[in-house]
Amino acid sequence: MRRTPRLVATDLDGTLVHSDSTISPFTRATVLAIQEAGAVFVMVTARPPRWLHDLSDLVGAHGVAIVANGAILYDVAQRKAIRTRLIDPAVALEIAQAIRTAVPEVEFAIERPDRYGQEPHYLNRWPKPDDTLIAALDELLAEPAAKLLVRHRSLHSDELLARVAPIVGERVAASHSGGTGLVEIAASGVSKAAMLADFAGEQGISAAETIAFGDSVNDLPMLSWAGTSYGVGNAHPEVLAVVDHVCPTNDEDGVATVLAELFNL
């Protein structure tokens, strides 16, 4: 019989969230029910802070989410960063220039704790915020960033990451969250796992008491850290190869299905 976890950590897109960017009533009700039962629930996502506001009812009493792949611990209700681990501007610029030399077709964008920015011709697949900083690379990277986004218009993210990783080495943390042509770079040592471990420690919860759900390469450190790990059925092959369990897909409410069983809902 599986032990009921004290901490439930889950990725959002591709994991908890359906492919049409919605959360089902069943999943929403389940998340709220496990918190009523005493579990701590935390969203751990590559999303920037502004993309969490519509999910504020899921956050729970602690009020925070781990965003930008672990670069920011974010107070969703107060709409402010509590803790940040940002890329030094000089390091980010050096890295970006090296990537562009090796892969000339790339385009760059950045996420700061309070602002998004991009190069003029960056292919943005989502609506830009009204205050978007549109600027050349040196201006984009003049201040510390939570994430440096590397976009290629035709390569799969796996292939782009394979090209970028040897260039950046250990100077920064490079990963991706699936899809076509996007690699996300954070400061060295930043990961979903690192910030989740800090958060869990502050709650008095160990890795062994934590269950984590994910679907992509950027979830691997978190899934390895947690005492129990699940990959959704649609997860990246690297995820499916290492998790303890595989549950139904995101569109089949896999996370909520597992939680409903564990908490006897």
Automatic annotation (TrEMBL):
UniProt KW Hydrolase keyword: yes
GO molecular function: hydrolase activity
Xref: SUPFAM superfamilies: HAD-like
Keywords: Hydrolase
Signal peptide: none
Keyword Hydrolase: yes
InterPro entries: HAD-like_sf, HAD-SF_hydro_IIB, HAD_sf
Pfam families (alphabetical): Hydrolase_3 (PF08282)
Recorded superkingdom: Bacteria
NCBIfam families: HAD-SF-IIB
Protein's recorded name: Cof-type HAD-IIB family hydrolase
Organism: Kribbella lupini
Lineage of the species this protein comes from: Bacteria, Bacillati, Actinomycetota, Actinomycetes, Propionibacteriales
